[in-house]
Design brief:
Number of helices: 4
CATH architecture: Alpha-Beta Complex
Largest sheet: 4 strands, mixed
Bound molecules: calcium ion
CATH topology: paralog of FGE (formylglycine-generating enzyme)
Number of strands: 9
Number of domains: 1
Strand order of the largest sheet: 6-5-4-7
């Protein structure tokens, strides 16, 4: 799971390499090491694809052109690329945020069972804009700002399962201006995938194909690297 929300700088760098990513029409609201936002689900999915393949239209997310999405196929992408960048599913995001690091159960907030101090440990309630990544308190699994700062796109359809078209997607974690309960494990937001809002951003997760040695050659799908690695495939 990416430690941080994708930043405005990372967004600017990656989108400069592939004009098929930022096609939603609304440009970034934030700068530098603030999280990127005004990013539609489609734009976020194409960003993840680009990290995988160097092509916004090729990866776990199936696009026939820059504006036509037709589904998700992580396994096929893994077999081709071995390391695949994705938007975390609702379940993956939930576990990274709320599962205790010793695996003994789930907490109410990503930082524990008591509400983090607003404006110090997490950016919510009294905030007026997103702060730079790395500002808040460390969360259960060494992530930052899964609670607050900007809402984050999940891969999952709000109705459950993989999205196949324009149905609403899950967003999680709340933003700088929301009350604390919006960061709780039970809080699950919904947004149309074309939404470009200055309070919705995303983080990516990396999947790695692991091939089991003899006697089996079955590939296993696991959640890999905890850090977001910006790999410059072009330029
Ligand atoms: Ca946009
Ligand atoms: Ca967040």
């Amino acid at each position: 799971m990416g430690t941080y929300e994708v930043t405005a700088n990372q967004w600017t760098t990656v989108t400069s390499y592939d004009s098929n990513i930022a096609t939603g029409g609304v440009s970034d609201a934030w700068t530098g090491s603030q999280p990127t936002a005004n990013v539609s689900w489609y734009e976020a999915a194409k960003f993840a694809n680009w990290l995988t393949s160097g092509d916004a239209l090729v990866g776990a997310y199936l696009f026939s052109n820059a504006t036509t999405f037709s589904g998700v196929n992580r396994q096929s992408a893994l077999e081709t690329y071995q390391t695949v960048y994705v938007l975390p599913t609702d379940d993956e995001w939930y576990k990274a945020a709320y599962l205790k690091s010793d695996g003994s159960g789930y907490t109410l907030y990503p930082t524990g069972d008591t509400a983090p101090t607003a404006g110090v440990e997490a950016n919510y309630s009294s905030g007026t804009s997103p702060w730079s990544i790395g500002t808040g308190a460390a969360e259960n699994n060494a992530t930052d700002d899964m609670g607050g700062n900007v809402w984050e796109w999940n891969e999952s359809a709000f109705a459950g399962g993989e999205p196949t078209g324009s149905e609403s997607r899950v967003i999680r974690g709340a933003h700088w201006g929301r009350i604390g309960t919006s960061m709780q494990s039970s809080a699950r937001g919904s947004a149309s995938p074309i939404t470009e809002a200055d309070y919705i951003g995303f983080r990516v997760a990396a999947l790695e194909l692991q091939v089991v040695p003899e006697p089996s050659s079955v590939g296993l799908l696991v959640i890999g690297a905890m850090d977001f690695v910006l790999r410059r495939r072009r330029g």
